[in-house]
Each structure stands twice: as structure tokens, then as C-alpha cells.
Amino acid sequence: MAGDLFRRNRPFNQLDGFYTDWSRHLTERCLPTLRDFPTDAKNEAVLGDIHSYYDTLNHYANKNTILYFLLPSWRSNSLETPILLLGDINPRLFTSLVQSLVDDVGLSQDPIRTFSNLAAWEDLSLQLENTINGTVSRLLDETREAQDGFIRRFSDKWVSSFRGSQSETVIMETATSVTTDEEGGGAAIMEELVRIFREANQLRKSVITDIAGVLNMNQKVLFLESVCKLLSGFKHQDKAFQNSLFGYNLINQQLPPDDDNLFKPLHPSEEVNAHPNYPRPMVQNYAPPFPPDAHQFFRPFAPHQNFHPPMMEQQYAPLPPPPPPMAQHQQHAPEEDHVIYVGNLAPWATACLLYQRFSCYPSVRIAKICGDETGSYGYGFVSFADEREKTHAMKAMNRQIFLDREMYVGLAANNSI
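Structure for RRM domain-containing protein, as requested:
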């Protein structure tokens, strides 16, 4: 079904495109196949594509790419992390899907009672739960041990890199040196993470296969459809989330005022009720009162034998009108980008890593990675908001080391990415 989607000669810098193609394949091929006249053969074809997906991830996982798979940049949404485990869906979610289908597909929505016969599943569910809990617990312990070893080696290299050196030390370069350190054990840690990642994918495959094996054809269709929707639901979902009601409320929620509001001077009417321990400034300046209303202009003073009050109190000058609003194009004038070219990049360089490499410049906006067809080298572009920082980066970053290669930095042909 998948054509060349699962080919094994894809360059590393195109793996993000693999996730995009896989999401599109699930949406345009697998889901319609399950919905249109489902058969056992179609179910097996979709199940085979899911197996090939995890096999492809395991094929490309090595000591140079494992951190990308464990922490992919497009799965950085914090709202998704509770259902993830070691770079992909937590296998517990697959068993929970079956129970949710049982609870959701009730008599009113399922007149043919698709999940009425679940004796085989009830026997399997307890066995799968024990297997998943034991394996996941062990893999997390092994991951924690590998991370502890990585932290120790990172701290040693970090201290030695800036001791006696006046140049700036970049965290990403220190981390990269740990991953490629054969003698210090850093490379062995990366290999251990590769093994853990592959075993987690094997667990995901086996859980899906075992569940599908005890379901009948109609049950299997609903289960595989839910799995395909899950796997395709991670890629390019940010815009859809922002347009949803929940996303709009979360993004536009009203935040509490800053703490410095607590130290603003009290209004005179509030001083009486203020707490004695409330911090107050030494001198409080209050804004002048507003002009009195018209009926207050003519208010006689109390009579006095030696004083004849004027007929009216002092009149305040009217407030000046507010300045006219700026023109719409002046308020929202787009800022110009200043782009540089970065050449001779390693095949495993990503836009995220390139952005971090130039993050020492505060005005960096976007980084983009391109590559040749063979995948032997890559190049990219970085845009700046400040033209002076762009000029400085072309001089200071040229021939600097990035992922074990010298960067060739120069002026880009266009000021846009």
C-alpha cells in the first residue's frame, strides 16, 4: 500500500518529511481503506503498514539520530507529552483504546453490538497489562541510568571547555562532543538509547498485533481506525488546535497581573483599610483630581465678616483631545528580514539545531535546512531582525564548527526564507 514510503535510503535531513508523508498516508490511504467495505485482507494491509512504520524508525535509529527520535521537534507540544513514551505513543494507550471503544459504542450507537463478544480480549487484557507495565518500568529505569551517565560526561566536558578559555561555550556543541566520544563512553550511551528506543517500538508493535489478533473483523476495523487517527494526529496540528474553542481559550486566557502591581502607591481612600505590613513608598504622589462637574462651579463660600468670596471657584482648563491614532500601515508595518547562507552542514543537521547554534544573537528569527539528493551535505539559511547582528554573524560564525563540520557563512541571495 505504501509504495516507497518505507524505503531505507532516505537521508537523515529528510526524516521530518517522512513523518509528514506517513501522516498523509494514514489520512488518505489507510483510513479510507478501513471505512470502505472492510475486509480481513484490508485490515491486514493496514496492520502491515503500521509494522513497517515502526520498522523504518528502528532502521534509521543510530547513535547520531537517536536524540532526534526520542525528542522530535514536532512533538514538543507539552499537551501531547502525557500520552508519549520514548518518542512515540505509550503502549498503554492501545489497550485503553479497546476499553474506551467498549464504553463509548453503547447500545444506542452500536445496534449490531460490535463489542458484545469480548471473552478473548478480557483474557488477553490482564496479560498485556502485566507485560506493558513490566517492560515500560524497566525501559524507563534503563533510560534514567543512561541519562545519568550522559549528565556526568556532559558536566566534565562543560567545565573543561570553558576553563582557561575566553571564547563562548555553546551547550549544543558540548552535548554533541559527548555523543561522539568513543573513549569516554558517550557513544556507548547513545547505542544504549538506540536499543531502548527499538525495544519500545517492538513493544508497541506486539501490543497492536496481539490486540488485533483477538478481535473479529468489525472490532478490528474500529481499533485500527483509532490507532491510525492517533498516529496521524501529531503532525501539523498546531493550526487546527489554535482554531478550536479549547485552543482559543487556552492561548487567550487572562493572566494575573505582575507582582510589581503589589508595590504601587495606595489611593488615599484605600490607606485606611491597608494592612499594617503592606509595603509603602516613602513619598506618594497622586494624580491631580478631575475637573469638577458643572454644578460645582457656582458654590458660595461660607460668609465671613471681613471676606467677600468670589462668585465662582477656579475653573479648570478642558483636557486636550487625545492624539489621532496612527495610520493602520504605520502600526503594523512588517519588519524586514536579514538572511544569511550557511553551507557545508552535516546530513544530520536540523533546523532546530541550526537555530540553537545561532541563538547567541537575540534577533534570530527563523532557521531552515535544505539538502542535496544524495544526502552527503546540506545547507541552510538563518534570518535576523537586526542587520548589525547579521553582519557580525557572517564574520564571527564563518568557519566555526557545527556538528563536526566547518560552516561556510555568507550573504543570502534573498532577504526571505
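The CA atoms of residues 83 and 89 lie 6 Å apart.
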